[in-house]
């Protein structure tokens, strides 16, 4: 049985519209891009870019025993647990 599909519309600026014009299957492209973005969203803020006051309190508590470190190989930032420095991976 085929799942019911919903139609979602959204506004785009002229620059994004121009970028999408030559894509043969825009719907498939947009679905794939959204799923990829959701898979890479921050697990704490869910990709909103900001924390609620409750999330901020949790983060502040977490940050007492964790810090940010920059990888020497790829230059990306990752979390380091000060309670278990041997188990830190990136």
Notes on the protein architecture:
The structure is a single chain. By secondary structure, the protein is an alpha+beta fold. It is built from three helices and two strands. The chain has a two-stranded antiparallel ribbon with strand order 1-2. The longest helix has 14 residues, at 26-39. The mean pLDDT is 88.
Notable features of this structure?
single chain; 90 residues; alpha+beta; two-stranded antiparallel sheet; 2 strands; elongated
Question: What secondary-structure arrangement, pairings included, does this model have?
Answer:
Layout: H1 14-20, H2 26-39, H3 53-63, E1 66-70, E2 77-81
Antiparallel strand pairs: 1-2
Please count the beta strands (DSSP E, at least 2 residues each). Answer: 2
Mean pLDDT, all residues:
88
In terms of structural class, how would the helical and strand content be classed?
alpha+beta
What's the story with the biggest beta sheet?
2 strands, antiparallel
Element string (H = helix, E = strand): HHHEE
Q: Per the principal axes of the C-alpha atoms, what is the gross shape?
A: elongated
Radius of gyration: 19 Å
Q: Helix tally? A: 3
Strand coverage percent: 5-15%
Low-confidence stretches: none
Trace the largest sheet across and list its strands.
1-2
Helix content: 25-40%
